[in-house]
Specification:
The protein is an alpha/beta fold and 506 residues long. The chain folds into 3 domains: 18-185, P-loop containing nucleotide triphosphate hydrolases (Rossmann fold), CATH 3.40.50.300; 191-366, P-loop containing nucleotide triphosphate hydrolases (Rossmann fold, 3-Layer(aba) Sandwich); 400-505, no CATH class. The chain is 46% helix and 13% strand. It contains 20 helices and 13 strands. The strands form 2 sheets. Strands 3-4-2-5-6-1-7 form a 7-stranded parallel beta sheet. It has a 6-stranded parallel beta sheet with strand order 8-13-12-9-11-10, with helices on both faces. Helix 11 (328-336) links the parallel strand 12 and strand 13 (347-352). Helix 17 (433-449) packs across helix 20 (483-505). The radius of gyration is 27 Å and the shape is elongated.
C-alpha cells in the first residue's frame, strides 16, 4: 500500500505579492472564458514564485470547479517542495512516487503531485488510476517528457509553467501543445519592484572554436570538458573569481563532472573554502554538502547541472558560468540561483566565462517571449548566427599567467597570422610558410625568457591556447580546412616547437 504524504501547518496562509495575484487572475480569466478545455502556458522568471502561484491556482480551482488537480514535476525535490507549498495553504495532497502503487484513499485528497515517469507507468497499467482530474499543472513545462501523459487527460485543462517558454527539443515546439501564452512580469520589473536581486555581469572573452554542437542543439559535454580542463582556462577562472567575486558566497556551474572536480582541486589548492557536488552523491552527502554551503561564510560550491532546479539558497552572492551554452533555459536557470533577495542582499555578481552574454544577452534584458513561443525556429536561427559571429570576431589575448611567464616581450614578438598569410599570398609564396614563421616566433620568445629545457616545455604548455588560435586563423584563411586538419596542424606545430627547444637547450 502507498504511504500518505500530508503536511499540515498552523501558520497563516502566505500573502501573495501583487504581481502573483495579477497572474492568477489572468490565468483564471482564460480558464473561465474558454469553452471546454484549454491548454495554457504561463511564463515567469526564476525566483518569481511559480510554485506559490500554481499552488494557489490549484486551491482556487478545486474550490471553484469541485474537481481534482494533478501537478507534474520531473524531480523528487520539486515534488516535495510542491507538496509542502500545497499543504501550507490547506490543500490536501498526495505525492505519487514509486512506492504508491494503488490509491484506495483517493477520496481523501483533492490534489496529486506526481513524477512523470512514475505516473506514466501507473497510467499505462491502469488508465483509470486517477479520476475527476479537471486541471493538470506542469512544472518546468519546457521539458518534453510531459508530452507522453497528455493523452491520458483529454478532458482536463492544462497549465504549463516555465521561466523560459522554449522547448528543450527543437523538433517539438511548445506551441504544438499549448494554445496560448501568458507572460508574467519581466526580470527587470521584478528587480525594480524589489522582488529579485539586481545583477552586475562581468564577461571574459573565451575562444570557443574547439566546441562541438550536439544533436540537442547545445555544445557537447565532451568538447566543453576538453576546453574547460585546459590549464589556461583554469587560470582564467581563478583570476576572474579573485578579481570580481572573492569573499562572496559563490556557485560555479560547469559542463561535466570531470571539470567540476578539477575546479574543486584548483580552489582547494588556492586555500579557499570549496566543495564539489554532482548527481552521483547520495542524498545524505548531498544534504551535508548543501548544509555546509548554507552555513559557511564565503563558501564556494562547484557543480554541474544538479542545482539548476529544485535548489534555493538566497545567500548566494555570485554565479560563475564556467561553461558555454546555447540554451536560453539553462542560462536563466543557472543565473536564477543568485537572484533571490534577503534583508542584506539586493545585488549579486555574474561572471561569464563562456561568451554567453554575447550569445544570449544579459540575464535582465527584455525578451519577447510571445515571439519566441510563436516562432521558435527564428530564435534558433538567430542564436546560430550570433554563435558564428562570435567565433569569427574572437581576438585572443594573453592571460596574466602567460605574460608573467614571458617578461621579456619586444614589439617584434607580435604576430598577426592573417596579415602574414595575406602578405605571403600577395608575394606568390606558399601559405604554409606562415605556420613555420609562427613556430619560429614562439621559439624566439621562449629562448628570450629561459635557457632551461624544462621551463621551456612548461612555456609551450602555457602557449597552447595561443597556438590553437593562430592555427585556427590559418585554417580560416584556407577556407577548405577540416576539423581533422586543424587538429593535425596543432599537434604538428607543438611537436616542431618542442624539437626546436630540444635542439637549442639540450
Amino acid at each position: 500500500m502507498g504511504s500518505k504524504q500530508e503536511i499540515f501547518t498552523e501558520e497563516p496562509i502566505k500573502e501573495l505579492y501583487p504581481y502573483q495575484e495579477e497572474a492568477i487572475v489572468r490565468i483564471f480569466e482564460v480558464l473561465d472564458e474558454t469553452e471546454g478545455k484549454t491548454n495554457i502556458l504561463f511564463q515567469l522568471p526564476t525566483g518569481g514564485g511559480k510554485t506559490v502561484i500554481f499552488s494557489e491556482i490549484a486551491r482556487q480551482f478545486i474550490s471553484r470547479r469541485k474537481q481534482k488537480v494533478l501537478i507534474l514535476t520531473h524531480r523528487v525535490e520539486l515534488s516535495v517542495q510542491t507538496s509542502n507549498a500545497l499543504s501550507e495553504i490547506d490543500v490536501k495532497n498526495k505525492i505519487i512516487n514509486r512506492d504508491v502503487k494503488e490509491l484506495p484513499d483517493r477520496e481523501e485528497y483533492d490534489c496529486y503531485v506526481a513524477m512523470v515517469e512514475t505516473l506514466n507507468n501507473r497510467l499505462n497499467e491502469n488508465e483509470n488510476y486517477l479520476r475527476n482530474i479537471g486541471l493538470v499543472i506542469i512544472d518546468e513545462a519546457h521539458y518534453n517528457s510531459f508530452r507522453k501523459l497528455f493523452k491520458f487527460f483529454d478532458n482536463a485543462n492544462m497549465l504549463g509553467v516555465t521561466a523560459t517558454p522554449l522547448s528543450s527539443n527543437r523538433s517539438l515546439p511548445l506551441n504544438e501543445n499549448y494554445q496560448s501564452l501568458i507572460v508574467g512580469h519581466s526580470i527587470e520589473d521584478l528587480i525594480d519592484d524589489g522582488y529579485l536581486s539586481g545583477a552586475t555581469t562581468f564577461t571574459f572573452n573565451v575562444n570557443l572554436r574547439s566546441l562541438k554542437v550536439g544533436p540537442d542543439g547545445d555544445y557537447t559535454i565532451s568538447s566543453l570538458d576538453r576546453l574547460y580542463s585546459l590549464y589556461s582556462m583554469q587560470d582564467r577562472l581563478l583570476a576572474a573569481y579573485e578579481e570580481k567575486a572573492k569573499g562572496k558566497k559563490t556557485l560555479i556551474f560547469n559542463s561535466g563532472i570531470a571539470t567540476s572536480i578539477r575546479v574543486y582541486e584548483l580552489f582547494k589548492n588556492a586555500g579557499y573554502p570549496v566543495k564539489h557536488l554532482d548527481s552521483t552523491f547520495s542524498p545524505k552527502d548531498r544534504e551535508d554538502t548543501l548544509t555546509w554551503f548554507k552555513e559557511t561564510h564565503n563558501a564556494i560550491l562547484t557543480s554541474v547541472g544538479i542545482l539548476t532546479t529544485g535548489f534555493d539558497e538566497p545567500s548566494v552572492e555570485a554565479i560563475v558560468l564556467n561553461r558555454a551554452t546555447r540554451s536560453l533555459t539553462l542560462y536563466h536557470q543557472m543565473i536564477g540561483r543568485g537572484s533571490r533577495i534577503t534583508r542584506t542582499k539586493r545585488k549579486f555578481t555574474i561572471i561569464d566565462l563562456g561568451n554567453n552574454v554575447q550569445r544570449l544577452g544579459l540575464w535582465q534584458d527584455y525578451i519577447n517571449w510571445t515571439d519566441i513561443f510563436r516562432f521558435p525556429e527564428k530564435y534558433f536561427e538567430r542564436i546560430n548566427e550570433k554563435d558564428e559571429n562570435l567565433l569569427f570576431d574572437y581576438q585572443y589575448q594573453r592571460s596574466q599567467e602567460v605574460m608573467d611567464a614571458f617578461p621579456v616581450h619586444d614589439p617584434e614578438d607580435e604576430f598577426d597570422m592573417k596579415e602574414i598569410y595575406d602578405d605571403l599570398m600577395a608575394k606568390g609564396e606558399k601559405p604554409k610558410k606562415a605556420i613555420n614563421m609562427s613556430i619560429d616566433n614562439h621559439a624566439r620568445q621562449i629562448f628570450k625568457n629561459t635557457d632551461d629545457y624544462y621551463d621551456a616545455l612548461d612555456m609551450i604548455e602555457l602557449l597552447q591556447e595561443e597556438i590553437e588560435y593562430r592555427c585556427r586563423i590559418y585554417c580560416n584563411c584556407l577556407h577548405s580546412a577540416t576539423d581533422s586538419y586543424f587538429s593535425w596542424l596543432v599537434d604538428t606545430y607543438v611537436r616542431k616547437i618542442r624539437n626546436e627547444v630540444r635542439l637549442e637547450l639540450m
